[in-house]
Structures are given as C-alpha cells and as structure tokens.
Amino acid sequence: MAARLMAGINSSGMLVAFHKPYGVLSRFTSDGSGYRPLSEFGLPPRIYPLGRLDADSEGLLLLTDERRWNHELLNPRAQHPRLYWVQVERIPDPESLRRLSLGIKIRDWLAAPCQARILDPAPELPDRIPPIRFRKTVPTCWLSMELTEGKNRQVRRMTAAVGHPTLRLVRVRIGCFDLGNLPPGQWRILSQHDRALVRQTQGPPPASGQ
C-alpha cells in the first residue's frame, strides 16, 4: 500500500478511484447516522470527494487534492456524463423509458434528458451487504441510466416518478473511466491515462500513455 501511495503522489496531485460500498458516507467524518465514514478505508491523506454518492448507493467515487477537478466535473454547465446501473421494481415499459429519456418533471424542477435502457442480461455485480429486499410476487429489472446532472437523489426520484422505485443503485462510470473490477471498499490512484478517461465525455478512449 505504501509503495502504491508514494508512486501516485507527484507535483500534479492525485485523483483516486474508490469503490464505495453500501452504507458508507461520502465524507471522512461520522454524521451520527451509524453509516461508516471514508476514514475507515485507508485512503491517502488530504484528499476529498468529488461530488457524492448517498450512503445507500454504491460504486465509483472519485477523490482528489486538486481543486481544478471541481470545475471540470461538477460544474453543471460541463454536463459531464455519469453512468448508473439501477435495479428497479417491476419491468418498465417503453413509455416509461421514453419519459426517463426525454426528461421528467420532479416536483418543481425538470430533470434533464438522459439515456435510459433495460440491461439484458442483468449485470454481474458483487452481492450487496445487506441484500436488497426480496418479494416473490414483484419482479425486478436492471436499467442503464446515463445522466449529465447530479441533483440530490436524482436517479431514485426519476425512477419513482415513472412508477419503478429504485432497489439498488451503482455508479459504474464517470466520463469514460469505468469502475471495472475494483472490489467494493478498495481504491487506487489513477494514472495519466485514467485521468484522460475521466475527462473524456464521448468517443473512443484515448490511446494508452496520453
């Protein structure tokens, strides 16, 4: 771990990918909720999360000590894409997917259009601890949803608005950088090539070494 840490520290700072498990806060200190803080996972010092994942969501969380990433990734005008795999109750029909894709009104704001489709076959993911609730009479379905905005609990509110409550939510990509096979609770410092993938919003991945 120490060798990996020192290899990733340089004058340009760090960008770290962390596979956030269920029940973990996107902060280093406890909030009294009983959820685990990031300080329990041996992450490098002096880094902070870029955005957040709710405690009941999982997947790719980026952390950095470089303030410029805030503007590049979190500025709403940047429309930086994020891909989520979402397990929902019941099977959405084409009209529900169309409503999600076109942008749906949620209370007093309109969610931006997104890319939404059914994942078939379902993705292979590590088991969630604890597992989702299981109801024999209610089927479930996995969706792929790519968003370019990140309002509070947006994906969950969007699926609920079309009658398909979210059961499990996993962020698997930011820009063109994938979570890949990084196990839950583990992290790694990103290479220059990885950083280019994070910045990239569409098209083929940049060549290795760029």
How would you explain this protein's 3D organization?
The chain is an alpha+beta fold. It has two domains: 97 residues, Pseudouridine synthase I, catalytic domain, N-terminal subdomain (Alpha-Beta Plaits, 2-Layer Sandwich), CATH 3.30.70.580; 92 residues, Alpha-L RNA-binding motif (Alpha-Beta Plaits). It has five helices and eleven strands. The strands form two sheets. Strands 1, 2, 3, 4, 7, 8, 9, 10 and 11 form a nine-stranded mixed β-sheet that branches. The longest helix has 9 residues. The N terminus and C terminus are likely disordered.
**Class derived from helix and strand content:** alpha+beta
Number of distinct helices = 5
CATH superfamily of the largest domain: Pseudouridine synthase I, catalytic domain, N-terminal subdomain
Q: In terms of per-residue confidence, which ranges show pLDDT below 50 for 5 or more consecutive residues?
A: 1-11, 206-210
Q: Assign a percent range to the helix content.
A: 10-25%
Question: Quick one: CATH class of the largest domain?
Answer: Alpha Beta
Please tell me the overall pLDDT. Answer: 89
Largest sheet: 9 strands, mixed
Order of helices and strands: HEEEHEHEEEEHEEEH
* Assigned CATH architecture of the largest domain: 2-Layer Sandwich
Estimate the strand proportion: 25-35%
Radius of gyration over C-alpha positions, nearest whole angstrom:
17 Å
- The quaternary state of the protein chains shown equals single chain
How many separate structural domains?
Answer: 2
Number of strands: 11
What sort of overall outline do the alpha carbons produce when their principal axes are compared?
Answer: globular
In the CATH scheme, what's the topology name of the largest domain?
Alpha-Beta Plaits
| Alpha carbon gap, first and last residue | 25 Å
